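User: Sequence recovery, please. Input:
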């Protein structure tokens, strides 16, 4: 037969051969994958076994003392000095297994470990459920711990969620079951666990919450259920602080007790109807550690918030807790808060003192007079009022838009929705600078600033400062503090302004060290919340608040302090319902401030705010400022507190108050302020608001020969009260200031003859603006040069007494007083004579200064020889400056027009 096959036959033949080949390929691949998995599983087991053996070898021994008693945790202050311990053997009472009521034991088994009496230390079923949860929800999502495992974890291990800890816990739990009975293990558990509020073990818990002695008195199923529900989350299920949550938890435990047959359905219904508020007694404060209790509460609160540390670790884990506590500052704070003379015994206060540079909490203060303690300082939930303005409005404006501290803001009637935004004084100023608006705490400019900044930028800025504001809180009125916050948050936010813009989350714990040496660093990382120019410019404006604004009551001499006041008001409905006064009252009062060393926020108000008010007439709204001042001044003693340093990114420029522009030459000095600008954002335009005022008019100067002085006089150019600046230049020299006077005249004495005087008078307004100067010139004549004297050949003849009836003055007169007088009949003097007529005789003076002989017809009565100086007539006004007596001068006559220059 031919070997030839048709195409169709060949296709059929090939199709029959292919399936066997394909089957062999799939089978081979599967075998390879399976072999690989087996190998990896065996390697994993081997590796896991080796690792598990290593973990087990490092596990601690079963220490009976640690199993029975909690290890006290030690608290250390900022200097690593021990200040107190938490819990400890002496803080609790132990109950034997048989002394613990059966209902209590069964309640705990029902909720914590239903197969407790069946497993060998670990429960495979619970492990399976936990593994599934961890695979679907992530490692650590659900625990599989039995009561035995919890005893091991609380006594010997940490709460760290690691494979090593889990392996050691399982190993030690099995070992514990081999060495102790179930009843002994349950007794350890019930005496060791923490129930909150300082209660260790069921004995302390029964007394703390019900006022019962567990050993001598029976507990109801409802009470047992409440206790059994607490250890899971003692803080959250705290019946004093959160009764609703505690009630729900109690009822869940009762349902489990019913399911396990511990109680009947009727009993479950009965006790589920009970509210824990009706079951518990009044809370009593722990007086053993009152000294630093407020601070320690914050320490515990911070540690509770961590996943790697449980409350059991905190109180019984033998931890070393390194805190930020400054015992000196805390002692000062506690003393001031406790002894402040509150005008109302119902007033409350809360404050937090931080290290500005690190955010470390140095002290916490709050009044604790209430049955249910309210953490006013750290939890709060109060509206901050105007202390929010730097955080929500002005800080974001500088940061995002580089506004200056002198930015002109609108201050006019403003309505947001149905709300009218008003300033505290109910006045509007049209325009006001940002500095002044913050200094005087005006509301309208702050809200307008928020509107300019925008919700998102404001929210981002605030949340970088730890405010944690949600979108629905970012309304325009947030700028004036309509959201809730606490002194803890506010002190942290303000500290960033004093720290150059770097934010550190407020914290009370630095690190925690476990007994096995494991260390957890709890110092938060710093973050840049804003530019240094924003921080400095806000700080500089807040210094103005303290120096001259609404915060002057917080001013501390010699200490550079920046800060802000804040108040909130009651709703109109509350005022009406309570019959409160309609003015002069506030709901809350704040002061938040800082130095370069410390930051502090203080709240004052009432635990029931709608039933009370702070009375401004009694100064109750000033309490926050006064508390701040007292504490800040005392903690700052002995510290060289530096002022805030201006960064290179900020420059100071003088601008007009009203326009924010550069001042012109005519801008009054009192209208110029020096404000801060972000470098590169200074104003370029010069204001034209003010024009140069008219100066003086009619300036003239007159020289007075007799007094050798120059008298200046002028008139004001406008009807204004000027100060006049008078300047003088002599013979072309530089001007020198003579005086500043409010008069319109001035006299210059003892001028220099033969000199040219130029005068300049400038009018200066009360605001310091100078007008154009007015000028005048006065020339002082030179003193005439005397001609040389001629020698005379004839000697002066002796005076011959005149005959009776004729007196001839024979003395030659000088230019001042010399002249010969004749007493004859009175005749008018000759023209050009310098003499003056005597009573009866004629007196003729010569132009050369020599007196003429009078006529002989004069009366001879009472006549003497006339002396030129005394009895003779005056000669001409020229001659020598010297007064010559009894001598005749031959000096030539002077120009008759020369001024009188008579010497005294």
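Assistant: Recovered sequence (904 residues):
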């Amino acid at each position: 037969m031919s070997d030839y096959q048709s195409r169709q036959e060949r296709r059929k033949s090939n199709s029959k051969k292919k399936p066997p080949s394909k089957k062999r390929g799939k089978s081979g691949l599967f075998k390879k994958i399976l072999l690989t998995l087996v190998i990896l599983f065996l390697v994993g087991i081997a590796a896991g076994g080796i690792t598990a053996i290593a973990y087990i070898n490092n596990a601690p021994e079963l220490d009976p003392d640690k199993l029975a008693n909690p290890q006290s945790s030690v608290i250390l202050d900022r200097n690593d000095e021990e200040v107190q311990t938490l819990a400890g053997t002496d803080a609790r009472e132990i109950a034997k297994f048989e002394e613990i009521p059966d209902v209590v034991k069964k309640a705990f088994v029902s909720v914590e470990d239903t197969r407790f009496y069946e497993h060998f230390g670990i429960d495979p079923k619970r492990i399976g459920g936990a593994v599934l949860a961890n695979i679907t929800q992530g490692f650590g999502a659900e625990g599989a711990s039995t009561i035995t495992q919890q005893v091991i974890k609380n006594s010997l291990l940490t709460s760290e969620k690691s494979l090593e800890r889990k392996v050691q816990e399982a190993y030690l739990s099995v070992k514990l079951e081999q060495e102790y009975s179930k009843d002994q293990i349950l007794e350890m558990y019930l005496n060791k666990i923490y129930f909150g509020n300082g209660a260790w073990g069921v004995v302390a818990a029964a007394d703390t919450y019900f006022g019962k002695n567990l050993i001598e008195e029976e507990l109801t199923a409802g009470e047992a259920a409440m206790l059994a529900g607490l250890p899971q989350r003692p803080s959250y299920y705290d019946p004093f602080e959160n009764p609703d949550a505690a009630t729900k938890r109690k009822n869940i435990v009762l349902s489990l007790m019913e399911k396990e047959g511990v109680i009947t359905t009727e009993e479950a219904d009965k006790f589920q109807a009970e509210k824990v508020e009706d079951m518990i007694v009044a809370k009593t404060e722990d007086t053993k550690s009152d000294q630093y209790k407020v601070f320690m509460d914050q320490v515990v609160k911070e540690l509770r918030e961590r996943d790697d540390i449980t409350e059991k670790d905190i109180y019984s884990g033998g931890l070393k807790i390194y805190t930020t506590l400054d015992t000196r500052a805390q002692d000062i704070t506690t003393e001031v808060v406790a002894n402040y003379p509150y005008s109302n015994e119902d007033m409350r206060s809360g404050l937090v003192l931080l290290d500005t540079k690190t955010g470390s909490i140095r002290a916490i203060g709050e009044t604790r007079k209430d049955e249910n303690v309210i953490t006013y300082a750290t939890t709060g939930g109060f509206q901050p009022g105007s202390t929010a303005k730097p955080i929500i409005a002005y800080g974001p404006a500088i940061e995002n838009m580089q506004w200056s501290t002198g930015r002109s803001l609108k201050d006019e009637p403003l309505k947001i929705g149905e709300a009218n935004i008003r300033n505290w004084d109910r006045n509007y100023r049209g325009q006001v600078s940002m500095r002044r608006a913050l200094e005087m705490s005006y509301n309208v400019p702050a809200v307008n600033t928020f509107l300019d900044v925008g919700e998102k930028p404001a929210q981002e800025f605030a949340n970088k400062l730890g405010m944690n504001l949600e979108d629905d809180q970012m309304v325009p009125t947030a700028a004036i503090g309509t959201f809730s916050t606490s002194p803890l948050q506010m002190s942290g936010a303000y500290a960033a302004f004093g720290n150059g813009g770097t934010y550190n989350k407020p914290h009370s714990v630095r690190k925690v060290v476990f007994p096995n040496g494991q260390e957890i660093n709890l110092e938060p990382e710093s973050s840049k919340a804003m530019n240094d120019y924003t921080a400095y410019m806000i700080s500089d404006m807040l210094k103005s608040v303290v120096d001259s604004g609404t915060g002057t009551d917080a001013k501390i001499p010699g200490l550079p302090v920046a800060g802000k006041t804040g108040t909130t008001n009651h709703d109109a409905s509350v005022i009406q319902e309570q019959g409160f006064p309609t003015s002069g009252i506030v709901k809350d009062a704040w002061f938040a401030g800082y130095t370069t060393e410390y930051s502090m926020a203080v709240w004052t108000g009432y635990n029931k705010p709608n039933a009370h008010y702070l009375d401004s007439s009694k100064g109750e709204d000033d309490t926050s400022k006064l508390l701040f001042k007292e504490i800040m001044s005392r903690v700052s003693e002995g510290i060289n507190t530096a002022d805030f340093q201006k960064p290179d990114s900020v420059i100071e420029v003088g601008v007009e108050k009203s326009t924010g522009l550069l001042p012109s030459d005519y801008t009054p000095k009192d209208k110029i302020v020096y404000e801060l600008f972000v470098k590169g954002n200074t104003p370029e335009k010069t204001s034209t608001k003010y024009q140069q005022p008219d100066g003086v008019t009619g300036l003239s100067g007159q020289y007075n020969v007799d007094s050798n002085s120059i008298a200046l006089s002028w008139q004001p150019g406008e009807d204004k009260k000027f100060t006049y600046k008078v300047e003088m230049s002599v013979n072309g020299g530089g001007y020198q200031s003579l005086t500043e006077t409010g008069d319109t005249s001035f006299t210059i004495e003892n001028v220099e003859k033969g000199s040219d005087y130029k005068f300049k008078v400038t009018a200066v307004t009360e605001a310091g603006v100078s007008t154009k100067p007015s000028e005048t010139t006065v020339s002082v004549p030179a003193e005439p040069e005397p001609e040389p004297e001629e020698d005379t050949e004839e000697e002066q003849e002796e005076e011959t007494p005149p005959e009776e009836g004729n007196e001839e003055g024979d003395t030659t007169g000088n230019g001042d007083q010399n002249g010969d007088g004749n007493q004859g009949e009175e005749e008018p003097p000759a023209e050009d004579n310098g003499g003056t007529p005597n009573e009866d005789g004629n007196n003729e003076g010569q132009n050369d200064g020599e007196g003429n002989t009078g006529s002989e017809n004069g009366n001879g009565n009472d006549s003497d020889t006339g002396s030129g100086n005394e009895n003779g007539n005056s000669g001409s006004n020229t001659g020598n400056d010297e007064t010559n007596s009894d001598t005749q001068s031959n000096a030539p006559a002077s120009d008759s027009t020369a001024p009188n220059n008579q010497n005294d």
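The first strand starts at residue 73 and ends at 76.
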